[in-house]
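Researcher: Predict the fold of Dihydrofolate reductase family protein.
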Amino acid sequence: MRKIVLMMSVSLDGYMEGPNRELDWHLVDEELHTHFNDVLRDMGAFLDGRVSYELMADYWPTADRDPDAPAPVADFARIWRGKPKLVFSRTLHRAEWHTTIVRDVVVDDIMALKAQEGGDLALGGATLAAEFMRHDLIDEYWLYVHPVILGRGRPLFSRAEEMPKTDLHLIETRTFGNGVVLLRHARN
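Model: Structure tokens for Dihydrofolate reductase family protein follow.
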């Protein structure tokens, strides 16, 4: 059975974006970007909320056309364009690049998706992640902790009181040259 994998960058104090939705504190250098590409290349699909999808769709469809684009950027543009995507939105009416719009998180539908053949499913977007957590649907948490304290912003686990207790175990740590640390946990 495929796993649902939440991959999210967070500050040391647990924020996934700054107070004005900024992400400029993410330390995505060539090493980290190449790692993301290597992991995401093998995923079966991307599951995103509308905001995450629209941010991705604003840049990645043509990012590899820039002759000055670094190799990992051009590589990810090709990965993103070709990968099946499910965007969870009640307001989005049209999407491109192998994208299916899904209106609601329906547990039985997600379980059927997990039962299909193919690679694991990469979950993105804090609001969507909170909904998947509330339904206890996430199998692995890959948190990329960046060496910065924001002090305020949007926390990754903003609706923790709505989530069931989930026991996890650490399956991997990795420190990147820029100081980012991957903490990879799986369900018990």
